Structure formats: structure tokens, C-alpha cells
From TrEMBL:
SUPFAM superfamilies to which the protein is assigned, alphabetical: LuxS/MPP-like metallohydrolase (SSF63411)
Signal peptide: 1-23
Domain of life: Bacteria
Keywords for this protein: Signal
Protein family according to the UniProt entry: Belongs to the peptidase M16 family.
Short name of one Pfam family: Peptidase_M16_C
Keyword Nucleus: no
Segments forming domain Peptidase M16 C-terminal: 190-373
One Gene Ontology term of the molecular function aspect: metal ion binding
Cofactor annotation: Zn(2+)
Tagged with keyword Signal: yes
PANTHER family: METALLOPROTEASE (PTHR11851), MITOCHONDRIAL-PROCESSING PEPTIDASE SUBUNIT ALPHA (PTHR11851:SF49)
Protein name: Insulinase family protein
């Protein structure tokens, strides 16, 4: 996660923060069948974002069926008892809206953006496929080929995605985050329509879903519509999954990926804490600020020194996203310039963190960085869809939409001493996985299939 925002935003961030905090709060309801409904009124434009988030993602899969969460996401557009394959999307388009879906490690979400008077119609469509999906064997056979082609083009034939896939498989031994969201190819090849049916029957239930509606709406009216369309759906007994706890790492893990690419590349992944309690997890907020110190704006430390001044790298970065259901990583990455090796760049990246661990950051730099970071957090809310995304992510990862503003408060309160402290404690060899890309000639790279060219 990179926190790059325009200079204008940083100048106004602290001025606008009180206004952001004073904005109309989201309202929450729970239907009798256990479905949570969160509504955020925002009347700046006559549009609405309607999203259904299922608390199930690739981390809930088991060996042999990796990728099934993503495959089912595709199949959700293939018809219900009353809709033909593709008709869902056609109806949303006829209403003047746009729609899509996405699968992550932690959740699967479906959304429509629509003119406010059409909300009831898309809600009826979404509730229909929550309960009445038809999983046809022939449609599945066609769609699984699409997913396999997607995997080939977006991962197998792309150098950097291959590096990250291998890095995750090495950084996590036991936790299912080691599996790619799209699934391993062998699992896709052996997957059947019955695997998708079982996933749908086990997880797609109102009591495993959160409805998020943002935009030009009345919360009480949305509640009534939710009761009408989702409230009549039966709750299910959800499948119980056993925890898969990642064992402590005891030393550096290294791996190398050989793939067609223009430049070498290296990524360093350190085990880091996940946000569980906004009030108590102060290290998480300090690590957010540290990531911004390193790579939060155009002239942040990594880019200023390694790219602009020393010219030892073509690109560098830092990333940390603490909001997840499972364990998370703090990433340092970069592509060395000519004359610099990936081994040297690895040391240079670590040296910049070590410099903060030894010398700390000045109050002036800290203030500038936090202003940029907070500006990025606030301006995500300028979009109706962005607000719905923020609420949905929080709710499906074990936090609450009520924590959103409090996170900003906690970021503002981070001290220079806290930033120095986390730099000292979380970047040890025993928590590190290093993945290196060794480029092969680009002539070995295959062109994308016609169906995936844009």
C-alpha cells in the first residue's frame, strides 16, 4: 500500500480532517437472518454504491480446491432460476449502472453503482443470486477455461506476479495465505462444478454477508428495502474452519525466480502485526507511518536517496497494509540500476530502515509525512464507491466501520519515538523472506491471448 497524494491534498489535510470526522456517520442494522446492513448517507450526487461482502475468500480454501472462491465469483454471473447466463449484467447495464466483483484472500464482494432511483432493482437482483444461483455444468466448463487463461496471462506469464506468488508460498508455511487467490493451476484443472456448488452452499448466506450502501439514500428506506429482499432469505449453518496458525519464523528464507523481464527485482517481506484492536495496537499505526516515511510521497526517503541522489535503483518502494483476517507483511522492494546488484539493493533498502532505527525521524519530517498520510486517508472518502470499499473491508476483516475515523486519530498521535521503536524491532533476519527476480530474455515471453488484450 503506497500513500502517494498530491501536494495540494497535504496542504489541506489537517484543515479538512475536522470536517471529515463531523460527516454524517454510517448507520448499522442487523436483519433477523443475521445479515448486517451498513448505510452511509452522502447526498453530493444522485448516485448509490450497493455492495454485498461475503466473509469468505481464498484463505478459507483447502488444498486441492485452491481458486474455488474466485471461480465461484465468475459463476455468480452465469444465471439464476429466473435469469439466463449474462442477464444479470445486461439488466444492470440497461438501468444505466455498472457492476463487477472481486475476490481477495479475506472476502468476496459484488457491487453495482447506480442512479439512486434504481437501487431497489439492483438489490432485488443481488438478493436473487444470493439464494437462487444455478451452477450449470456446461457453463462451468467454459468459465473454468477462462479462469485458467486468466492465471496464465496475469501470473504465469508475468514476472513480478510470479515473484510475489513464490514469495507468499515461502513466507507462509502453514497459513493459507501461501496459496494464490486465483488458485494453483493443477487445482483449477481438476476442479468440478460440484466444488463450486459446495462453496456456494457453505458460504453464500445472509448471515455470512454484509450489505454496504453509500450515496444519496435514506438509511431507514434502505433498511426497509434490505428487509424486503434480503430479510426473507434463510440463514445457514456456516461451515466451521479450523485455525491454521503460522509457526514462528526462525531465519531468513530466500528464493529466486527466473522469468522473462527487462530488469532484475528484489522484494523483502518482514512479518509484521495485523490490526486487531484500534485502541491498543499502537505498533501498527507506527508501522503505517514508517511506511509513509520511506515511501509515502514523491520525495520520501527511499526514492530521494536511492533513486534521485545516489542513482543506485530505478525504482524502490515500501508497503504495509495491516487490515486483514490473517498475518501480514511489511514489504521493501526495488529494481537496481545498471551497475548495482539485487544483493546490493537488498542491503541498501535495509540500511534505510536501520538509519531510522539508529537516528529516528525529526519532528518536522514526521509532521510532513503524517499530513500526507492522513490526506490520503481522507480523500479516499471523496468517492461514494471509496466509502463503501472502506466500510466493507473493515467489516469483513474483523474490525468495524466505526473504527475508520479513530484510525486517523491514532495516526495523528504517532510519535517519532514510536516510529524509531518499530524500525528497531520488526526488521530482523528471523522474520525476513527475500525473493529475487533474475531476468530471462524477453523473447521468451509469450504474447497475451486475444481474449485478454485491452
Amino acid at each position: 500500500m503506497k500513500f502517494r497524494v498530491a501536494t495540494m491534498l497535504s496542504a489541506w489535510a489537517l484543515v479538512l480532517l475536522p470536517l471529515a470526522v463531523q460527516a454524517e456517520p454510517a448507520q448499522e442494522f442487523v436483519l433477523q437472518n443475521g445479515m448486517k446492513v451498513v448505510v452511509k448517507e452522502d447526498r453530493r450526487a444522485p448516485t448509490v454504491a450497493h455492495m454485498v461482502w461475503y466473509k469468505v475468500g481464498s484463505m478459507d480454501e483447502t488444498n486441492g480446491t485452491t481458486g474455488v472462491a474466485h471461480v465461484l465469483e465468475h459463476m455468480m454471473f452465469k444465471g439464476t432460476k429466473t435469469l439466463k447466463p449474462g442477464e444479470f449484467s445486461q439488466r444492470v447495464a440497461a438501468l444505466g449502472g455498472r457492476e463487477n466483483a472481486f475476490t481477495s484472500k479475506d472476502y468476496t464482494a459484488y457491487y453495482q453503482q447506480i442512479e439512486k432511483s434504481k437501487l431497489e432493482k439492483v438489490m432485488a437482483l443481488e438478493a436473487d443470486r444470493m439464494a437462487n444461483l444455478v451452477l450449470d455444468k456446461e457453463e462451468f466448463a467454459k468459465e473454468i477455461r477462462v479462469v485458467m487463461e486468466e492465471r496464465r496471462w496475469r501470473t504465469d506469464d508475468q514476472a513480478i506476479p510470479r515473484v510475489y506468488e513464490a514469495m507468499n508460498a515461502s513466507a507462509f508455511f502453514a497459513h493459507p495465505y501461501r496459496h494464490p487467490i486465483v488458485g494453483w493451476m493443477s487445482d483449477l484443472q481438476s476442479m468440478t462444478v460440484d466444488d463450486a456448488k459446495a462453496w456456494y452452499q457453505h458460504w453464500y448466506a445472509p448471515n455470512n454477508a454484509t450489505l454496504v450502501v453509500t450515496g444519496d439514500v435514506d438509511a431507514k428506506a434502505v433498511h426497509a428495502l434490505a428487509e424486503k429482499y434480503y430479510g426473507r432469505l434463510a440463514r445457514k449453518t456456516l461451515q466451521v474452519t479450523r485455525p491454521q496458525t503460522e509457526p514462528p519464523q526462525t531465519g531468513i528464507r530466500r528464493l529466486t525466480v527466473h522469468a522473462p523481464a527487462e530488469n532484475p527485482y528484489v522484494v523483502l517481506a518482514f512479518k509484521a502485526p495485523t490490526l486487531r484492536n484500534v485502541e491498543r495496537d499502537d505498533d501498527v499505526h507506527a508501522l503505517d507511518v514508517l511506511a509513509a516515511v520511506l515511501d509515502g510521497y514523491d520525495n520520501a526517503r527511499l526514492n530521494a536517496k536511492l533513486v534521485r541522489t545516489d542513482k543506485l535503483a530505478n525504482s524502490v518502494g515500501a508497503g504495509y497494509s495491516s487490515i486483514a483476517r490473517g498475518p501480514v507483511l511489511f514489504l521493501l522492494d526495488g529494481s537496481p540500476s545498471r551497475g548495482t546488484t539485487t544483493e546490493q539493493l537488498e542491503g541498501l533498502l535495509r540500511a534505510e530502515v536501520e538509519r531510522i532505527a539508529k537516528e529516528g525521524v525529526s519532528e518536522e519530517e514526521l509532521k510532513r509525512v503524517k499530513t500526507q498520510l492522513i490526506a490520503g486517508q481522507i480523500y479516499k472518502r471523496d468517492s461514494i464507491f471509496g466509502q463503501a470499499m472502506e466500510i466493507g473491508v473493515m467489516e469483513t476483516t474483523g474490525l468495524s466501520h466505526r473504527d475508520i475515523d479513530r484510525i486517523i486519530d491514532k495516526l495523528r498521535a504517532v510519535t517519532a519515538q514510536q516510529v524509531q521503536s518499530v524500525a528497531q524491532r520488526y526488521f530482523k533476519d528471523e522474520s525476513l523472506t527475500v525473493a529475487t527476480l533474475v531476468p530471462l530474455p524477453l523473447s521468451e515471453k509469450k504474447p497475451p491471448p486475444a481474449s485478454l488484450r485491452h
